[in-house]
Specification:
Number of helices: 12
Distance between the termini: 50 Å
CATH superfamily of the largest domain: Thiamin diphosphate (ThDP)-binding fold, Pyr/PP domains
Order of helices and strands: EHEHEHEHEHEHEHEHHEEHEEEHEH
Strand order of the largest sheet: 3-2-4-5-7-6-12
Structural class: alpha/beta
Largest sheet: 7 strands, mixed
CATH class of the largest domain: Alpha Beta
Helix content: 25-40%
Length: about 350
């Protein structure tokens, strides 16, 4: 086991994905994740990798498409409005079954919004802004260490399913510093390995016949069969990639649902409520897609209300209601625009909600 080192979130994210096997980065600076391209420009050449600053987010996602189609392990990162620009390319990546690791260090919106942290990209990343029927696994870590662990694993998940994989952090996590234990570097996939481990990848004419990677399928029956194939794959993802953490659901009067940094705040609110004699639980979705609906089956008859705590105007509420299925009311505690609630604010609002539903 190595020693823990104190790292800024963005730099830890970048280091983790390099150690996870990514050797190609395409990106464009945007706050609050600009340390990532800066780190990659300095570190990737030392590790035998390539850094390329694109002319825009549109350029970055399509460069990653080309890299992935040729069998390379690519990584792209951006923040909310930049991810919006990339979503056309994400549809292409899914249609062509090209693996890429994507990181969104989200900020306030809509539009350019602010450079402060936000979670209002929830619908954007779980429902998708690109065209057509496609799905991208989305993981939402609650600490820098958890983000490191997920980003280390993400390139292999992307390769296994031939699909992009996204990690949703936020500006707070990207800019804070925490001690992290960095994993051992994985062996990189060399150009000599690609024909064996990725026989579908483009390789020119060296092997006698060309591989073709594309999302264009002009014959309706061919496209329909391809989309059906994709959704068979997504069904496997739903079974294998669902991740959730549950605490104190057995006797909770109120159950918080929160992801990312807001889950940490909700956990502190749980402790404060406990001191006041109010039992609280927590459902923390780690995978936002596939969403852990099954966790809500653990709600007990003692639960009077489920409360979503989020940095948006309730974008996760639809999924929570689908999980709760009318067993109890679902309420919202939120801030937006880059504003962060305090744990005391959450406690105060929770007590008022409990008065209403009791």
């Amino acid at each position: 086991m190595g020693e823990k080192v104190l790292m800024k979130g963005n730099e830890a994210f970048a280091e983790a994905v390099i150690r996870g096997g990514c050797r190609f980065y395409f990106g464009y600076p945007i706050t609050p994740q600009s340390e990532i391209p800066e780190f990659m420009s300095r570190e990737l050449p030392k590790r035998g990798g390539k850094f390329l600053q694109a002319e825009s987010e549109l350029g970055a996602v399509n460069m990653a498409y080309g890299c992935g189609a040729a069998g390379g392990r690519g990584f792209i990162s951006s923040s909310s409005p930049g991810i919006a620009l990339m979503q056309e390319g994400m549809s292409f990546l899914c249609g062509a079954e090209v693996p890429v690791t994507i990181l969104n260090v989200s900020r306030g919106g809509p539009g350019i919004g602010s450079i402060q942290p936000g979670q209002a990209d929830y619908n954007q990343v779980t429902r998708g802004g690109g065209n057509g029927d496609y799905k991208i696994p989305v993981f939402a870590p609650a600490s820098i260490q958890e983000a490191v662990d997920i980003l280390y694993e993400a390139p292999e998940i992307a390769d296994k399913f031939r699909n992009p994989v996204m990690v949703l952090a936020d500006g707070l996590m990207g800019q804070m510093m925490e001690p992290v234990l960095l994993p051992e570097p994985k062996p990189e996939i060399t150009s000599a390995d690609i024909p064996k481990v990725k026989p579908w990848a483009i390789s020119g004419s060296e092997k006698g016949e060309r591989s073709v990677v594309k999302s264009l399928r002009l014959q309706p029956e061919v496209l329909e069969a391809h989309v059906s194939h994709l959704f068979e794959k997504y069904a496997v993802m739903e079974k294998e990639l669902e991740r959730v953490e549950c605490e104190g659901l057995e006797d909770a009067e109120v159950v918080f649902v929160a992801f990312g940094t807001m889950a940490r705040l909700a956990r502190e609110a749980m402790e404060l409520l406990e001191a006041d004699g109010i039992k609280a639980g927590l459902i923390r979705p780690i995978s936002l897609w596939p969403y852990p609906y099954s966790a809500f089956e653990k709600l007990s008859g003692k639960t009077k209300v489920v409360v979503s705590v989020e940095l948006s105007m309730g974008q996760m509420m639809q999924d929570i209601k689908l999980g709760v299925l009318g067993r109890c009311p679902v309420k919202l505690i939120c801030r937006t625009g880059g504003m962060l609630p305090t744990s005391l604010e959450v406690v105060e609002k929770t007590k008022k909600i409990l008065e209403e539903v009791r």
